Structures are given as structure tokens and as C-alpha cells.
Amino acid sequence: MLNNNPFTILAETVPPVAMQYFIIAMVLLIAVGTIIQMIHHKNLTYFFANAKKAKLSATKELGIGEKTGIIAKTAVVDIGTTSELGFGKRRLAHVLGMYGTILFWVSSAILVFCYTGADKSNSETWSMLWHVGAILTCIGGYWFWFFLRVDVSAEAHPWYRIIKADLFVLALLACSTFGLAWSYFQFNGQVGLSYLFLILFVASNLILFGGVYWSKFAHMFYKPGAAIQKNLAEADGSRDNLPPPADAPEQFGLGIKREEPKHY
Ligand code: HEM
Predict the structure, then answer these.
(1) How far away, in angstroms, is 251 Cα from ligand 1 center?
(2) What is the mean pLDDT of residues 97-119?
(3) Cβ-Cβ contacts under 8 Å for 136 (sequence gap 6 or more)
(4) Backbone angles phi and psi of 29, in degrees to 5
(5) Where are the alpha helices (DSSP H) in 42-123?
(6) How much helix, strand and coil, in percent to the nearest 5, is found in the chain?
(7) Whole-angstrom Cα distance, residue 202 to residue 205?
(8) 245-249 long-range Cβ contacts below 8 angstroms, 24+ apart
(9) pLDDT tens readout for residues 156-213
(10) Which of 220, 221, 230, 263 has most ligand 1 atoms within 8 Å of CB, for mutation?
């Protein structure tokens, strides 16, 4: 099953060009949802106003080379490993889900555009990566959903309590889970179940990408921007207008040791 491209068999009933248009439509939905969210929440206006204000208190002018170095380091360390989540389970779960999702999306596009259709060859590698991406997303996502979510781990709410803020993680998990189930039943020749999960797979993609405006989807664009701005502000001395770090030793008393810090 893992080496099988599920879009190839689907191409016997659905033309590959329709699948390609579906992917393009999903990309457009991301762009539209994010832009409308930015306009309504005014986060970009705030972001640039804050950056402009901070620039006034900069103590050092950064050269192009320095800026490039900071941006590259932020991309590899802060963004690539989601370092803001500290060390621990929360970060590991996020990294699994993040890379799983990226792998799943990239391989979906490559399979549909390059390896689906009567005249196209098969790619076992990309088919394998599609399944691995979905599995990694499920591992990271379900771990987060059942055990690490603040509502569950710190506020003692049951795992089945769902609020609007869960739209993103649930839609993401639905896409990977239904995608895997579709591939499994298709591979085993269970036509009815395979179509049922295909419909659920398509529906969850429409919810994930159509719900960008209402969900946390766009954090994958905002967070990297904020991390780059924070590191540039630290390097040019403006520190986002925050006071300089204290030069006294960090003594918080014994109280701080009573409970493990949790990096939400
Ligand atoms: C494809 C890219 C990404 C995916 C699929 C993804 C997925 C997720 C998911 C499912 C959540 C849980 C959301 C919730 O609270 O319900 C989350 C939270 C979070 N993400 Fe991402 N993310 C991505 C990129 C990023 C990037 C690039 C950063 C930072 C540079 C980032 C930082 C965070 C942080 C700080 C949280 C809060 C974590 C927590 O509450 O434990 N994410 N992400």
C-alpha cells in the first residue's frame, strides 16, 4: 500500500486535470483566507507599525550580510525546529506534525501533477513519502490532541471537548487520517469504503483550506515573520521597545521549582 499512488486508480474515474484544478483551488483558498484574515485582524498593520516604532530605538544599523545571516539562522533554527516551544514533547509533536504535513502536501502535488494519468509513470518514492507524511502528521497531531493541548494537559478538559480554535488541528488530522484510510481500502479493493473515505478526504480538505480565515492555519506564515522580526530587533538593539535584560542574577526563590514550566 505504501508504494501505491492512490491518485492513479482514482484517475480511472476522475480526470487528472480535475485533481490538478482542485490543488490549485486549495492554494487560492489559502491565499484568500490569509489575506482576508490579515485585513480583518489588522495584524500586518500592527506588525509593520511596531517594526517601524522599534527601528527608531535601534542602537545599531545592520548591514545586508548581517541581516541575511540572522534571517538564515532564524529559518534553520527558530522556524525549522519551532524553537519557541522549548525542549520537550510539545516541540517534538509539533515538528513531527509540521514536517509530516509539508511532506504530505508536497508529495500530493508531485503525485497529482507528475505521476497521475494514463501516459504517466509511477513513482514509488513519492507514493511512499505521501503515506509517510500522513503518518507523521497523525503521530504528531494525535499526540497533541489527546495529551498536549493546553485545554487537556493544563485545564483538565476532556479530550473530546471541541471549540472553534480546534478547527485547524482537527481538519489537518482528518485530512491525513481519511487520506490513509482511502488509500488502504482502495489498495484492498474495497470499493465502497474507498469511495466513502475519498469523499471524507475531499470534504476535510475543503474544511481545512476553506476555513483558513477562521482557523489557526495562517500561524505557519505569521510565526516565521514574527521570529525574524524578533531576532533582527535583538541584533539592532531595539528589542521591540522592551527594556534591556537585567544584569542581576536570575533569582526567583524556591517557589519556581514547585512546578515544571510548560511552554505554551
Ligand atoms: C506546515 C507547517 C505547520 C503546521 C502543519 C503546523 C501545525 C500546528 C498545529 C496542528 C498546531 C496546534 C494548533 C492548536 O493549538 O490547535 C500548531 C501550533 C503551534 N505552531 Fe505550528 N504548524 C506549522 C508551522 C509552524 C511554524 C513555522 C511555527 C513557528 C515558527 C509554528 C509554531 C507553532 C506554535 C508556537 C504553536 C503553539 C503550540 C502549542 O500550543 O503547543 N508552527 N501548529
Answers:
(1) 32
(2) 96
(3) 96, 97, 99, 100, 103
(4) -60, -40
(5) 43-56, 64-73, 89-114
(6) 70, 0, 30
(7) 5
(8) none
(9) 788 888 999 999 999 999 999 999 999 999 999 999 999 999 999 999 999 999 999 9
(10) 220
